[in-house]
Amino acid sequence: MLNYKVEQERTAKLRYVKKTDGLDIEQESKNSSNEGAPEFKNIKKLEDNIHKPSGSSVQLMCPATGNPIPTITWTRNNERTIGRVSYKKWSIQMDDATTEDSGVYKCTICNKLGCIEHSTKVTIRDRLRSPPIISDKFPQNQTVLAHNSTYLECRVVSDLEPSIKWFRYVNQNVPIKQLEQVALKLVNKSPPNNSSLLENVITLTAEPDRPNILNFTNVTHREEL
């Protein structure tokens, strides 16, 4: 009669114990059930578009997991030759980027069980005076449990130091365009055309040294939009 006992180790082992004349004869077999295809560690943090002025540093990251440990390959515009970049485990970095570094960069991550990939469009523009550009993925909607903490982030590309202000729109029945116009008037310190809308626009305060981050602590339903 065979008795079975499972031991949990880095790789699972199945141990067969056979009773023979009062002695235990053991055999072990490896179990490869913990193998897995590559997966991104946090796909929400992967960027689809990056805008930078010339002379900036650009870092692209594709952190992933998998067993066996996957390999990563980078291409730009589907070509393996990328140019002046430094490689790290799950990222590449370009320093003093120029307009010639613009393109679609793709990371391809593979092991014997499969491959995953992600593409990021990088746009490097010459330094010209122009309005700030807000990243199309920020700020992001947040879902958080009551009485927990969270934050909103506004990522901005600008040749000059931008001034960032945060506002909360209260009345959902008022068209968002009208509330945005009121907020712009407040930023420019000019009276809005319709002062009755002022009560629907609340100015929020961020930390002075990090104006692009708006922190929330001990959130309640009052912060919901």
Automatic annotation (TrEMBL):
Protein source organism: Glossina brevipalpis
Keywords for this protein: Disulfide bond, Glycoprotein, Immunoglobulin domain, Membrane, Receptor, Repeat, Signal, Transmembrane, Transmembrane helix
Protein name: Ig-like domain-containing protein
Pfam families hit by this protein: I-set
Localization annotation: Membrane
Coiled coil: none
Primary localisation category: membrane
Bilayer disposition of the protein: Single-pass membrane protein
